[in-house]
Amino acid sequence: GLPADQLSVENAIIITTSNQKVYVLDPSSAAVSWLRNTLAEDNVEVVSASSPRFHTSFDLAVRFGKKLIIQDVDSVEATVYPVLRGDKGQQDGRNSLRVYHVSR
């Protein structure tokens, strides 16, 4: 889990309640483990930005509204910008994607 200090607790609240896409700086990888556990019921997928599966996972998350944790992000790829800006909008009355970027 995450440390119990006030900043970590406040960040966890922001991450779980925000409607915005969340970018997390996580040098210790504690946030990835915590997000996996917190979002386990939602079948969250974790993919590395450098993985050959990245584009497929990202595309499926956009199309089907899956939650996706993208880790090892050194720079944001151009194909991700429209989603981060919110250009995608809603599909069938629900948010089409919630993105979590995790960088070390």
From TrEMBL:
InterPro entries: AAA_9, DHC, P-loop_NTPase
Lineage: superkingdom: Eukaryota
Gene Ontology process terms (BP): microtubule-based movement
GO cellular component, one term: dynein complex
GO molecular function, one term: dynein intermediate chain binding
Residue span, Dynein heavy chain ATP-binding dynein motor region domain: 1-98
Record-linked PANTHER family: DYNEIN CYTOPLASMIC 2 HEAVY CHAIN 1, DYNEIN HEAVY CHAIN
Protein name (record): Dynein heavy chain ATP-binding dynein motor region domain-containing protein
